[in-house]
# Entry
Amino acid sequence: MAAINNSTTIRRAKFFDAVARWIITSGGILVIASVIAILVLIVSVTLPLFLGATSEKRVDTEIPEVLAKADVLCVGVDRVELEGSGEGDADAISGYLLANDGTFTFVEFPSADASANHTRSSFSPGNAMPGTTTTTTASLTGRGTSGAGASVTVLGTQRAEPPGGKQGVKVVRVERSAGNQYTLLWSDGSASLVKAGLFPQYDEHGRRTVGHRLETLQSFPAEDGEKPTAAAIRATSDELVTCVRLLSNNQLAIIRQAPSGGGGLFGGSSGTQTHRTVIREGIPSKITAMTLNTDGTWLYAGTDDGSLVRWQLDDEGKPKYHEVVPAFRDQREITALAIVYGEMALVVGDAKGGVSVWFEVRQEDSRKFRLIHELKPHGSAIVDLFPSRRDKSVLSLDEDGIAHLDYTTSQRHLLTLAESAPLKLMGFAPRGNAMIGVDRDNRLLVWNFGWMMSENSHPEVSWAALFGKIHYENHEKPKFIWQSSGTDEPKFSLVPVIFGTFKATCYAMLFAVPLALFSAMYVSHFTTPAFKRAIKPVVEVMAAIPTVVIGFLILLWAAPLVGDWIVGVFASFLTIPVTFVLFMMLWQVLRKFDWAKRIENGYEFIVLSMCVILPATILAVALAGPMENLLFDGNFRQWLVDHWNIEYEQLNSIVVAFGLGFAVIPIIFSISEDALSDIPHSLTAASLALGASRWQTVWRVILPSASPGIFAAIMIGFGRAVGETMIVFMAAGNTPILDPSPFNGFRTLSANIAVEIGEAPRDGTLYRVLFLCAVLLFVLTFFLNTAAEIVRHHLRKKYGKY
# Structure
C-alpha cells in the first residue's frame, strides 16, 4: 500500500513539475516574444522615414487630338481626393495644357476603377477677360486606378485673350507663380496673370465633385519702346499688383499698382495708384532668368556670367536695396530661378546642371545672400524649376529631358524620372502628389507620386537632418535644432534631445551615485544590525513613490525654493565639507570618552546629521545674502547674464538632478548594499585580523571585491534615469537646446515623446520621428540593462550567493 501511495505521489509530482516547466517556459518565451514584438512595431513605424520615393505612371497616352498641331508651352496637374461610394475615398486627377494661342485645354485623366461612374459637363470655347471665371465640373462617385495606356477625356477649352483683344497675338513666354497662377507674355508685349486649375465643390446632391476654372486676374497692355522678352506678375490679397518686364535692352520695367486708400467709413480704397520704374543700372551682364516673390517685394535675376542680382522694392516699386552676388566662380550661366515654399530661399539652376539653394544670412551688421545647399546635379543645363507649394521640395528639368525631385533643406534626392523619350515640359501638382509631362514624341504622361510603404511623404527627414548640422532659414550657421511646428521648415534634429537625455542622466547620477554608494557602505559595514533592518526597507519603499508625485513636488516646491536660495545651495558645497573637517578635528578629542566610542559603533549618522548637515545648511543659508552682495553685485541671476551670458531658468538641470536622483537612489542603494553585504566574511575578518581599520577594510578589500555588483547597480540606475519620463517632463522645462549649463533646461527623448505625441498626426513625419525616439530609447536602455545583467551574472558566478 505504501509503495502504491509512493508511486502515486511520484507521478503527481512529475506531472506538476512538467506543468510548471511548461508554464515557466511559455511565460519566458512570451516575455521575449513581447519584447521583440514591441521592437518590431516601433521599428516598422519608423522605417518609412528612410525608404525612397516612388512614382507610379498613371497615364501614358498621345496628346489630345485638339492639341496635336498646337505649340504647347505649359502643362499643369492637380490631384484631389473625393468621397467614394462606400468603398473608401477616390482621387481625381485633372490637368490642363496651354497652347501658344492662349488656349487652356482641360483634361480629365482616367480614374482608378473602370466601373466608376462619371458625369461631365463641358463648356464651349470662349474668351476669359479680366475678372471673369469660367467653370466646368466633373463628378466622380467611384474609386480605383487606371492603366498607363488609357486615354484622357477633354473637358473643354478656354482661351485667355491678350489685353486689348488683338487678333493673332501669341503667347511667347509663360512664368509660374504661386499656386496655379501663370504670367503670360504676349507677342505684342502685353502681359496677363491667369489662374487655371482644379478645385473641389459640391453638387446638388451634396456630393463632393471637381471643377475646372480659368480666371484672368490682372492684365497689363503693351507699352511703347523696347519689347519685353520675359514678364512676371504678382497680385496680393490687399490689391497690391506688381508687374516686371525684362526688356530686350536688358533693362527691367516695373509697374506697381497700389490702392490709394482713404475712402469710406470702413477703410475701403478710393482708387488705384500706378507707379512705373525702370532699372537700368546695377545689372552686371545679360539677364537670363528672372522671378518675383509672392507679394512682389523682392525681385531676383540671374545673368549669363553667373551673377545673382536681387532688389527689394518699396511701396512704389522702386528699388530700396540692391545686391549683386557672384554666384559661380566659373561664370556659368544661370538658366532658371524659382522661390522655394516659405518665400525665404531661392533655388537656382545653371547651365552645367547644378541646382543650388540660396538665402539671406546675417553677417555682423548686414545680411548677405549666400549659397546654402547644393542638390543632386543634372547632366545638362537646367531648363525649368517647379517648387512645391506644400513643402521645401523642388522638381527640376534639364535639357536632356531628365527630371529630379529633391528636398532643399535636407538636400535629400527623392526621385529621378528618365523616360525613353526626353521630357520637354513638366508640371508639379500644388499638393506635391502628382506630376505631368510632355515628351518630345508628344506623348502626355502623368505620375502619382508617393513613398514606399506609406502614402505620406517624409522628404524633410534624412540621416543628416536627424543627426547632423543643417543650415536652416533665418539662422546664421548650420545648427542642431528640434522645432516640429510653427515653421515652414520643420526641424527634426535628434541631437538636442539625445544630448538632453544624457545631460539629465549625468547630473542626476552626480547627485545620486555618491549618496547611494556611501549610504550602502554605511548600512552594510558600519551601522548596527537593527538600524540596517529598519532603514533598508524604507529606502526600497522610496522606489515605489510615483514619479509624477516627485515631478509635481519639484515643479511646484523645489524649483522655486532652489531659485530663491541658489547662492545658498552653492554655499552648502563649501560649508558642509568645512563643517565636517572641523567636526572631525573636534571628534578626535571627544572620542577618548566612552560615550563617544559607543556612538561610533553604528550611530554616527545621528551625530553627523545634528552636528554637520544641519549646522552647515543653516550656515549656508546665513551666508547666501552676504555672498550674493559681495561676489555677485547683489543679484546672482543678473550677474550670470552680464558676465557669462547665461540665463537662469527656474526649471533647470539642478532641480532635475535632485528629483531624478531621488528616484534613482533606491535602485543603486539596494543593489550596491547587496553586493557589499555578500562579500565573504572571511575576507573582512582576515583584513581586520591583520590590523586594518574598518574603513581600510571597506576601501581596500570590500569595494574592489564588490565592484562588479556596484558597477551593475550604477548601470541599472543609469538606465532608469535615461528612461524616466514624468520627472523630466514636468521639471526640465522641455527646451531642446545644446547647452551643458546647469542653469537652463533641456528635453529628453522620453519627454519629447510625451510633449509631441498629442500633436502628431497619425503616420505623419512627426509621428514617425517620435517612434524613432522610442527606438533609440529602447536600444539605449536595453543595452544598458543588458550590460548590467552581464556584470551581475559574472558576480553571481564569482561569489555563488546571488
Summary: Residues 2-46 form the longest helix (45 residues). The two ends are 43 Å apart (CA to CA). The longest strand covers residues 208-220. The CA atoms of residues 497 and 752 lie 7 Å apart.
